[in-house]
Design goal:
The complex is a heterodimer of chains A (182) and B (113).
Chain A lengths: L2 H22 L4 H18 L32 H12 L49 E12 L2 E13 L2 E13 L1
Antiparallel strand pairs in A: 1-2, 2-3
Helix pairs in contact in A: 1-2
Chain B lengths: L9 H15 L5 H20 L4 E14 L2 E14 L6 E14 H6 L4
Antiparallel strand pairs in B: 1-2, 2-3
The chains are: A alpha+beta (182), B alpha+beta (113).
């Protein structure tokens, strides 16, 4: 499945699943809509979904947060509303991460990867890398290992359920194998 | 309890940023923001589990580390092959690649899948 539609699905699902929580906590319904919109917007801004990878086939559907627990399909007729903004943003420069003072300091103290004209790069390093001198890269695979083995200088690994950010574009996989030479 | 690893994906970062803004502007409590994130953890794990895409990675290992049940590999000159069902497979080359992998058993224990 296209990553754009897959991500769309996750966004919808999360928003749907927290809507009861929001109601219970007496959070204004507008806030949930705002969250969804801002989430989608930031995702597009990140440029991780490459422009030609299904933005047209999987436009963001502006469904209403409160009602979405009922049915998402009902909103199909609103497709067009979201499309124009989507394409606009989709063509914007990739990776303008805005500084929102994330609590986790993922993006601080890093020698930026050569990336002209941008203050920040999607940093991919865990907190503890600050202590080490390890090459910094924004190419990142997040996954789960099933097997990691080594024979002499050959490493073989089996991974599953992964998200990869490669050259600024994101990919997902269900299974992966890896062979490394040390 | 479910893996928080995927919060570092573009999708997770976008959500974290969006939540941060709402918390900072005072319209959302940190508690409910954390709940959204844990809901995200579950959804993303489920979604990835359903993925039919297969990938392979090859390259020169620069660093390896196993710490806290997490493997970290830094791979040089990596060639990543991505094969989706009925889509032509795609090859991506990157000079440097960082692989972070949690124990898949932890994902199972979580019961989130």
């Amino acid at each position: 499945m296209e990553i754009a539609s897959k991500y769309q699905e996750i966004i919808r699902e999360v928003i749907k699943n927290v809507s009861a929580e929001f109601t219970a906590e007496h959070v204004n319904g507008e806030v949930l809509k705002q969250l969804e919109k801002s989430w989608e917007h930031k995702l597009l801004q990140s440029g991780a979904l490459s422009v030609n990878s299904g933005l047209k086939t999987a436009p963001i559907i502006p469904h209403r947060g409160d009602a979405c627990s009922k049915s998402i399909d009902e909103d199909d007729n609103k497709l067009t509303t979201g499309t124009s903004e989507l394409q606009e943003v989709g063509h914007a420069a990739p990776n303008p991460k805005d500084e929102t003072g994330t609590k986790r300091k993922r993006e601080t103290d890093k020698p930026a990867v050569p990336d002209l004209g941008q203050d920040e790069v999607i940093s991919t390093d865990s907190e503890d890398d600050n202590l080490e001198t390890e090459p910094v890269t924004s190419n990142l695979v997040l996954s789960q290992f099933e097997k990691v083995g080594r024979t002499k200088n050959k490493w073989k690994c089996a991974f599953r359920d992964g998200v990869m950010l490669l050259n600024g574009t994101e990919y997902v996989f269900g299974k992966a194998t890896a062979e490394f030479l040390w | 309890m479910s893996l928080e690893l995927y919060r570092r994906s573009s999708l997770g970062m976008a959500l974290t940023d969006a939540l941060d803004e709402l918390v900072i502007s005072g319209v959302l409590s940190p508690t409910i923001a954390m709940k959204v994130l844990s809901e995200f953890d579950k959804s993303v794990c489920r979604s990835l589990r359903a993925s039919k895409v297969k990938a392979s990675v090859k390259g020169q290992l620069h660093t390896y580390r196993f710490c806290g049940n997490v493997w970290t590999f830094i791979v040089e000159n990596a060639i990543v092959n991505i094969a989706d069902v009925d889509v032509q497979s795609k090859e991506v080359r990157v000079q440097l690649l960082k692989v972070v992998a949690c124990d898949s058993k932890l994902g199972d224990v979580s019961g989130s899948v």
